[in-house]
Structures are given as C-alpha cells and as structure tokens.
Design a protein that fits this description.
single chain, alpha/beta, 12-stranded mixed β-sheet, 11 helices, S-adenosyl-L-methionine, lyase
C-alpha cells in the first residue's frame, strides 16, 4: 500500500470518461465553446483496465465517473459494464442531468445508486446564462425520475456573486423538500481563475457567507462526515442535510484520498499541482509489467498533494472532471 508521511493514500478514484460536454459553464469554459472529445482519448476497455490496475496497485475502493459530461460518451455502457464486475464498494456518477432521463435505464441496470447533479439555479434564464446550453425543465424531470428509480441524489451548486447568489435559498428549499442533499461548492482558483485573481474575488462566495444566508431562514447543526470527506456537512433538523465543499474556507488537503485519471490517460494526484503522470501506455501492457511501473507513478502522484491547503492551479477542471 502506498502511503505518504501524513498517512494519506488513494482510496477514491475519479475517472473522466470524456472531455466532451454539452454545456459550456461560465466558471469552467471562459470562451463559451462547448468541449469535444479529445482525439487521443482512451477506449472503454483501456479505461476499465486502468481501474483494475489502480485497484490492485493503490487500493482504490470507490469510483466516481465524471467528464466533461459522462452521459454524452459512447463509451459509457461498455465501461460501466466492465467496472461493475470489479468488486468496488461504491460506484457513482456526476452529471449535468441533461441526458439523465434518457440514460436512466442504463444507469439502473449498471447498479448505479448514487449520482451528483450539477445545478446552479432554478431560474430558467439564469440557467441558460450560466450553462450556455441545455434546458432546466429536462434536468429537473430527469432528477425526479432518478429519485423514483431509487437513486440517491446530491446536487452540486457553485454560488457565484453577481450570477446566482439569489438562488441559494430557493435551491436549498427545493432539495430539502425532495430529499436531495445540496452541496455548495466554493469557487476554485483553477485554470483561468488561477491566473485572474480579480475575476475570482469578484465571484467568490465563502462558507461563512453561505451559512449567514441560510441562517436567516433555517436553523442548522453541523453533522458528521467521513474523515476524508471534502464537504463540511450540516443538518436542518426535521428537513434534511446540506454541505459546503469549502476548499478556500476550510481546506481538506490533510485528509485527501482522491486520485484522478483523465480521459487521455493522465494521472492527477492533486488539483493544486500542475504535475501529471502518463499511464496510457501502461494500460496496453500485461499486469505483471504494468503494475511495478504504475506503483512508481502513484508514489509521484501522492507526492504532488498539498500538505495543508489548496493554493490554486493551472490545471483546467474541464479536463479532469470534478
């Protein structure tokens, strides 16, 4: 088992199935151009082999499928069919929800029981302005259908000053009423926002600002969360839960157990590091050759993690998912 001096190891793998996306959200894609699949993306079979090798080499226990937008990928069915046989304790998926209703039978058949839906507003006009694509009603209907199918839903919202701060309470109340757990995600200093501190500060909303808004209408108590959780979790007694992924306000680097694999075969040990490690060539090798080399790269990736707090990074979130 590969462990660093702080006792951290990789338990959670997030794999970007594709860099393609049917949205072009303002905080992810500043030029407004929709993302397409990279020409050198790995096949479903190679990605599945990568997961199998990482389970053995790093002790990966949980898998989250991300993008881009994973539901637009033609590799989705073959990949999920393969990883579903690997004995992972949990397989989940993050989506913008636009294709959720259409892909729901596939997700149910593949055993997906948890999804995160990225949703920044309940205002249809603001939705189009932020996402630069899609349709709000279609997303909400897909979530309702997923809930009816027994899938547990978390909603990811990035509060942005001047864009959707007025939606914090409507979205929280909407989620509490339906049993969805809302996760507010503090804006991160990544990609173009790492280079433009003014743009970041103009839009950033902190944990304390969010709690002040929520406290005006709801009483809440801090709730328990797993030791390596990214979110500070709260309970609204009698109504439900919400959380804040407070990357800036309450850094969680000391307990981070996440490893990311891009759709083009690069390992990322830390979002705050520009380092990456290519494993695509190893995935065509037999196990006895691939594993020793992979373990060496994993040690480097673990060494990329920040010791205390995220300090920003040039890595673009759209390349490696959430």
């Amino acid at each position: 088992m590969i462990v660093d001096r702080q006792g951290r190891r990789f338990r959670n793998l997030r794999i970007s199935l594709t860099s393609a996306c049917n949205y072009a959200c303002t905080y992810c894609v500043p030029n407004g151009k929709r993302l397409v699949a990279a020409q050198d993306e790995l096949s479903a079979q190679a990605m599945a082999r990568g997961v199998a090798y990482l389970i053995e080499a790093a002790g990966i226990e949980r898998l989250r499928i991300t993008g881009g937008e994973p539901l637009v990928s033609p590799k989705l069915e073959a990949f999920m069919g393969a990883v579903g046989q690997m004995g992972l304790s949990d397989i989940s998926l993050t989506t913008n929800g636009q294709l959720l209703a259409r892909k729901l039978p596939l997700l149910v058949d593949a055993g997906i029981r948890r999804i995160n839906v990225s949703l920044d507003t309940l205002d249809a006009d603001a939705f189009r302005s932020i996402a630069r694509g899609g349709d709000l009603a279609t997303v909400l209907e897909g979530m309702d259908q997923a809930r009816a199918a027994g899938i547990k839903i978390k909603v990811n919202m990035v509060p942005l000053r001047g864009q959707n701060l007025d939606q914090v309470m409507p979205l929280l109340d909407y989620c509490l009423a339906r049993g969805y757990e809302l996760r507010f995600i503090e804006l991160m200093r990544m990609g173009h926002l790492a280079k433009d501190s003014n743009a970041f500060l103009q839009q950033f909303v902190s944990l304390q600002q969010l709690l002040s808004l929520i406290g005006e209408q709801h009483e809440y108590l801090q709730a328990n969360a797993p030791v390596d959780a990214t979110a500070v979790r709260y309970e609204v007694p009698g109504k439900g839960f919400f959380g804040v992924i407070a990357n800036e306000s309450v850094p969680f680097c000391r307990t981070c157990s996440r490893l990311r694999l891009s759709s083009t075969g690069w390992l990322h040990g830390c979002l705050s590091s520009s380092n990456r490690h290519y494993v695509g060539d190893l995935l065509d090798q037999p196990r006895h050759q691939a594993l020793p080399a992979l373990q060496g790269l994993l040690m480097k990736a673990l060494g990329d993690k920040q010791e205390v707090a995220f300090s920003g990074g040039a890595t673009v979130m759209k390349i490696i998912g959430g």
